[in-house]
Amino acid sequence: MLSKYTKVVATVITLSLAPTAFAGLEEGIEAANAGRFEEAVREFNYLADMNYAPGIYQLGLLYENGNGVAKNQKKAAELFSKAVKLGDADAMFSLAVMYDEGRGVLQDKQKYADLMLQAAKKNLPAAQFNVGVMYANGDGMPQDYRRALNWYEKAAANNYTLAMFNLALMYFQGLGVPKNIEKSYVWNTLAEFNGHADATKSRLLDEKQLSASQIERAKNLANDIYNRIQAGEYIAETRTSGPKS
Q1: What predicted TM-score, i.e. pTM, was given to this entire model?
Q2: 27 and 46 in contact (C-beta within 8 Å)?
Q3: According to the model, what pLDDT value does residue 141 have?
């Protein structure tokens, strides 16, 4: 029996610049990544005063981790919330995690699910993966393997390794789709391309159940999907009925 899928809770400092983004955001992120946190705080405070969502989010990260400022989970949650209102997907993800863990806010699993879904719909891969986990486990969402599969594939289209591995598991066990060892092999191979050690073990298990011609076909398909993912041209092939969620 497949153990529960594991959600992602870690966040990283990322740079996602809109065409009109302030240069100070890039400078602040570079300073933070180099450990020059006082400089980062100045840059992000300036951007926060300008009501610029990515800057508010990055300032929240500093408070969340205690970098350049006294660690303050409540302040971080307040900043993330402000950025969420301005439509920042990274802030939606981070605030969702805080609601899940009860850090800086009262624990609220429904707010976790709502925020994670918002971030997923904004094409944030880690959030898409977590929504897939919720559907797969029936945790925060009604258990629905088909929807889980669809969200995993959306994350995989964004080259998200854990989603590729979970897709392989679902095809291997026939969860949400008919059991298909070839497709399990394909997604294990893709996860393996990205360095997932367990995917290598799973692919070898798949291989024992496939003929030489099936393995060759699966390898070719994996290479084709990989190239499309790298080019940003892969679109989730699974579909769910009813409203998108």
Answers
A1: 0.88
A2: no
A3: 95
